[in-house]
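The records we work with from here on pair a chain with its fold. These numbers are not coordinates but entries in a learned vocabulary of local backbone shapes. To see the layout at work, look at the sequence and tokens printed below.
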Amino acid sequence: MIHLEGMGVLGSLTALRLHAAGVPFTWHDDQRRHVAWPASTGLVYPAGDEWSQRNLDHWTRWADQDWLPAGVVERASYVYAHLNPPHHGDYKTSPVGRLTLADAPAFTVNAPALVESTRARFARQRLGSKVPGSRLIVAHGFARATSLMWGWSAKVQLRLSPALAALPKRPALYGRKVRQLTYAYPVPGEPDVWWAGSSLVRQTTVRELDADKHFRRWCGDVADVYRGEVALLGQVGPVTQGWRPRPAKDVAAPLPDLLDSGTIVYPALWHSGIRWSPMVIERALSLITA
């Protein structure tokens, strides 16, 4: 029997993969307040490093498989406002209005819907703590974190230019003004809604910040960043805060740790939890089925 500690995004994807593989499991979650998934905007984008590309290849396969809940993953057009491809992306490009379209796959993941639907689906397998004798997977990054990265998100409605509106897939818009991120990603399952975000503020002492102030700056920057190709129509719902676990040192190809006890502990993926989840989860499955 496998027991999962944590049912956030990584825990939910692990639970779904275990179920699809016919591996029985139980789970618990301590309901900690300062977690990432309620504010996660879940873009899987085409970065240039090999590890990101390998995980993107996994997502390209995962998106067509029926073990994922319907409607939580959406293929997107990756559109950016930078002069050069963000994150050293290596792909062909074409102009779309005053912006640039990447000829590469991209996906958005509705993390809140994923977590909530998975918790509901496997509610009968939820326990208060680990079952004695079961194999433990610590399916979150907080066990390996030495600090947290604070951020925010808010759902918005946008008016797109004719060039962006004509794309076959909704645009996932990436840009920044100075060091302030000003992105807008489609919300899977909500055809007219995007996530606005975000900020990266490192914290060693967890605290809430003035997320509304950051959102107001985003509202003031979005038209300028996207050169008039995007306009804000309105806000849909509140601004949500989130905290991502950050390790002491980043690792180029992070994988779960296998302890002498047999426990599997997931890495802290503060900037890539969803993007890099496939290799982490597939490695965990290989360890428990070997």
User: Anything to note?
Assistant: The longest helix spans residues 211-225. The chain has one domain: 2-289. Residues 151 and 200 are 5 Å apart (CA to CA). The longest strand covers residues 230-246.
